[in-house]
Amino acid sequence: MKKFWSVLASVMLVAIVAFGAVGLFSCAKKPALITVATDATWPPMEYVDENKNIVGFDIDLVNEIAKAQGFKVEIKNTAWDGIFAGLAAGNYQVIASSVTITDERKATMDFSDPYVNAGQVLVVRKGTAGVSTLADMVGKKVGAQIGTTGAIEIGKVQGVELKTYDEVGLAFEDLANGNIDGVVADSPIAANFALQNATYKDKLMIVGKPFTDEWLGFAFKKGDTKTQKLFNEGLAKVKSSGKLDELQKKWLQ
Q1: Which of 17, 37, 114, 207 has its CA 20 to 30 A from that of 2?
Q2: What is the pTM of this model?
Q3: What CATH homologous superfamily does 33-117+216-251 map to?
Q4: Which residues pair with 36 in a beta bridge?
Q5: In whole numbers, what is the pLDDT of the chain averaged over residues?
Q6: What CATH number should be reported for the domain whose range is 120-207?
Q7: Residue 248, CB half-sphere, CA atoms under 13 Å: how many?
């Protein structure tokens, strides 16, 4: 009888272990949910469309990476002035919001491999003469979104008055209305407002060439190598498949 119960107990133990393994395997197959923060005020990179959906180049790229890696994403619209603090606090795992990779930022967060070069350009009102660089704006007001590399570049030029905005669209609006004399922004953003936006394309123009060499990347909480690796692997797949080129043609050309 003892032998019978011993055999029965062994069979039950094997069944429990097998059931647990199946459960673990099932959980492992479920795609993870990654929360991604974006400041959706930067068309064509990230913005809210007429249907209240968050769309744009970065959003499409994140979704392609998620598809390639088998996880799901939740996009969280987040104001730029607190977006990095939220990452450090663990409110989300990734920032996908036209974030320029800089040495200063690398000290407090980690980045993915770069995916787009978006140098800064100067936008002025049409009819503005004798202006091709920021140095030509001495004595004038130039706007940029607060905390961006555009604002940093303006601050480097002595004699140019920097005016910052919570959203870059407000800077372009002030420029069109004559309240400031120029705007500095990432080249894809500037092209959208100055060349494609129906409200501004007849009023604004880009002058000169991009005066910085800036690569954009996804930002992660410092030390979160797991999410960083997940995105880098997915980004490599999107690049090799030709999908990144397709997204650039769709949104940036």
Answers
A1: 17
A2: 0.72
A3: Periplasmic binding protein-like II (3.40.190.10)
A4: 75, 94
A5: 89
A6: 3.40.190.10
A7: 10
Convert the pLDDT of each residue in 109-139 to its tens digit.
999 999 998 899 999 999 999 999 999 999 9
Q: Whose structure tokens read 């800077």?
A: 171
Amino acid identity at 36: V
